[in-house]
Automatic annotation (TrEMBL):
Positions annotated to bind heme: 45
Listed transmembrane segments: none
Superkingdom of source: Bacteria
Keywords: Heme, Iron, Metal-binding, Transport
SUPFAM superfamilies: Globin-like
Presence of keyword Heme: yes
Single GO MF descriptor: heme binding
Entry protein name: Group III truncated hemoglobin
Entry coiled-coil feature ranges: none
Keyword Magnesium: no
């Protein structure tokens, strides 16, 4: 078995993203939520996610977007975010080790918390008119 190393190249990012989303799609809780929204646009979604993590972890600025907006209307709650993080952390720990690997987990957890609270807020307030 080859030794684990850190996430250092675009190929490493692609391995992480491909492995993670293969597992997400096979997961009985998360798979249907993703497939319902993404439909036949998986190649595009994966390409966006390569660029997102390339930007965050490698400092190569290939992603521009507003991910919060894409999540706000998803039919998900705390259990979905817990599952997402469990699969993400397990995938990282199996494939990589090092500073960037730790940063990826830290960043994902922060974003999960942010998305989860935005979604809760949206659910509670969607009956109100947006001024
Ligand atoms: C319950 C957990 C989650 C679900 C179900 C989910 C689902 C989705 C879906 C369906 C899309 C595609 C949206 C579209 O193209 O219309 C998307 C995009 C994205 N997600 Fe998530 N997501 C989750 C958690 C996270 C977390 C924790 C992160 C943090 C790294 C994240 C980062 C992103 C990014 C960067 C995009 C691309 C947004 C863009 O198009 O610019 N997601 N997500």
């Amino acid at each position: 078995m080859t030794e684990k190393h850190d996430i250092l190249t675009l190929d490493d990012v692609k391995l992480l993203v491909d492995t993670f989303y293969t597992r997400v799609r096979a997961d009985e809780l998360l798979g249907p939520v993703f497939d319902e929204r993404i439909q036949d646009r998986w190649p595009i979604h994966l390409d966006i996610m390569y660029r997102f993590w390339q930007t965050v972890l490698l400092g190569e600025l290939t992603y521009q977007g507003a991910p919060g907006q894409k999540h706000i209307t998803l039919p998900v709650g705390a259990e979905h975010f817990e599952r997402w993080l469990l699969i993400f952390f397990t995938t990282i720990d199996e494939l990589f080790e090092g500073e960037k690997a730790a940063e990826a987990k830290w960043r994902a957890e922060k974003m999960a918390d942010m998305f989860a609270s935005k979604i809760e807020y949206y659910k509670k307030n969607q009956h109100r008119a947006i001024l």
